[in-house]
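Dear Dr. H.,

I hope your travels went smoothly. While you were away I took the liberty of generating a structure for the chain from your last submission, since the lab meeting agenda had it listed for discussion. I wanted you to have the full record in hand beforehand rather than looking at slides cold. The sequence, exactly as received, is reproduced here:
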Amino acid sequence: MKKLFISGILACATLFASPVFAQGADTTAKAEVVDTNAVASTDSAIADSSVADSNTAQAEPVTTPTPAATEEVAAPQVEETKEVSQQIKDKFIEGGVEFMGVVLICLILGLAIAIERIIALNLATTNTKKLLKKVKKALSEGGVTAARNVVAKVPGPVASIFAQGLLRAEQGESIEQVEKSIIANGGVEMGKLEKGLTWVSLFISLAPMLGFMGTVIGMIDAFDSIQNEGDIKIDQVAGGIKVALLTTVAGLIVAIILQVFYNYCVSKVDAIVGQMEEASIELVDTLIAYKENKK
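The corresponding predicted structure, in token form, is as follows:
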């Protein structure tokens, strides 16, 4: 009886639990279907958005700058350059041709001389160490005559003083005479290097003086007009003073520009002179050693 009773209870429990498990399984299956549909809808939405983006990218054309747009950008720059040059011309005319013209002449002449000096000084620069090596090699192989032939092919003041010293040595003069000849020729070469720089210095001093003179004369004219009219007019006085000061500005600008070129030339001359002095000392030492070895 107990076995039958237990088996009956188990059978009832099985019948009661089977619909519940079946319902749970249906619910899980439905949830999985819903999740699958949600994923599918999400993927389709992403695909649609990518397609929309690609369509938008295709719909928007790539804009490239046209030649007309480039010309429109470049046109204001050209106009600004023209405006600056026109302003300079206007200020030059307002300052008075008689003084502004003289200041301009000072600038042109000073620049011409300075540029000529810069070119000459750069050509006069010599590699002294390389030249000394060649001279020593020529002295050891062919004597003073061979060394003179080497120096004659090299331009510049250093080679010139070398040639003078070697010439004295070839003539059989003493080392003291050779040294004196080198020093004297060095002074001559230094004068050649400084040629024309005095004119640049003159224009540096002259340009501001001319500008100040134009300013003073302009102020005198402004006060003369006030005295003649017997009344002070602000616009008249201000205009006269402005015109008078333009010459001073021009003179100062010219002096500043020429001063830069002048200082460069002076520094270049100093450097070359220093090379000449060092090279002359080494040449004298080389000749002393050559004569000692010859004995």
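Two observations you may find useful: Residues 1-62 have pLDDT under 50 and may be disordered. Residues 234-294 form the longest helix (61 residues).

With kind regards,
E. W.
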